[in-house]
Design goal:
single chain, alpha/beta, 1 helix, 8 strands, 15% helix, 71% strand
Length: 170
């Protein structure tokens, strides 16, 4: 079934298969892979997909490049981008996480943007969020990013001024 398109079914259950696009009301995959999945509910176990769009996404020991959902749960997995209303990451990581309510337990994100974060042992490069409950270790928060931007801007202005003085150009 490699590369085939699966669609129009109420429930699509795949095990040990590679497929192209999957469109169904409910998709359940075990040790399988898909290019794109569009469904109301998606459950992956030891599986992966390039792109997932669903109202409810549950991934256990798997991953995806792009996940867009209302409610997203990722356990022992990874993703490049996760977007959703409520996002729960447990022992998981993503390059970009963006959601209204985000809960992370023993995980990480490069960029973490949320209305509210509930965290337990979380590491991130940059966090932009409303209230944060718990511990998040960041390289940059909103204040330090502004300070870094101001310092870089001042440095560039100084270099430009020196260049103008020594070369006689504006």
């Amino acid at each position: 079934m490699a590369g085939e398109e699966v669609s129009g079914e109420e429930l699509t259950a795949l095990e040990n298969e590679l497929v192209g696009d999957v469109t169904a009301n409910s998709v359940e995959m075990t040790q399988s892979g898909a290019q794109t999945i569009k469904a109301q509910e998606v459950r992956l176990h030891q599986s992966g997909a390039q792109s997932i769009e669903a109202e409810k996404v549950t991934i256990r020991q798997g991953g995806a490049q792009y996940i867009q959902g209302g409610e997203v749960s990722l356990s022992q997995g990874g993703a490049l981008t996760v977007r959703g209303e409520t996002i729960a990451l447990q022992r998981s990581g993503a390059l970009v996480v963006s959601g209204q309510e985000v809960e992370v337990k023993q995980g990480g994100a490069g960029l973490l943007v949320a209305g509210r974060i509930k965290a337990d042992e979380v590491r991130s490069i940059f966090v932009a969020s409303g209230p944060i409950e718990g511990s998040v270790t960041t390289v940059l928060d909103q204040k330090s990013a502004l300070a870094l931007g101001a310092a870089l801007g001042a440095s560039l202005a100084f270099i430009y001024a020196l260049r103008s003085i020594f070369t006689g150009r504006d």
